[in-house]
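Posting here for the record, re: glutamine.
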Amino acid sequence: MSKVGVLAFQGDVREHSAALERLGAAPVLVKTRDDLASVDALIIPGGESTTIGKLLDRFDMIDPIADRAASGFPIYGTCAGLILLAASVTGKHDAPHRLGLLDIEVARNGYGRQVDSFESELEVKGLASSFRAVFIRAPIIESVGDAIEVLARCDGRPVLVRSANLMASSFHPEMTGDDRVHEMFLETITGANA
Ligand code: GLN
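Prediction output follows.
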């Protein structure tokens, strides 16, 4: 059984853990470097990217996560987690203390105030039917590098992307009880350990 870490500083940690349990994985709350060393993969949840980033920095987790990522460790960032994975952030508000591992450019809260939260039916590459996605003060992915695979778009913009062992979504797949996106992530763990 894969041990899948959920970074547990802040945000919707419980919902991700529940999705992992439903899929038969063992969720592990990750707050320290030792916790990180004990897991096969990591989910960085939605929440507030400035807060999560500060805590990553304070607990000296940025380099250890980056080091593991460089050797194929699977990481999935949702919403604030996507911002923390992004190589660059445009617009007024950067998120300091990012991991900066994924070659995408994002704008925090990019969908604007009038649509702070919305839902959309997405066509996701590899899924047989549409996926209902919940967006909450979501970042916009402004551009993606050549090596990034876009797995889903909303109104033409990428919202679910993958590059080797890294995956990120601007929406929250843990909120609807549809675990197919988590399942896709778990499949990358099998690949990484093969
Ligand atoms: N708006 C948040 C940020 O910029 C992300 C929101 C979320 O994770 N739901 O960090």
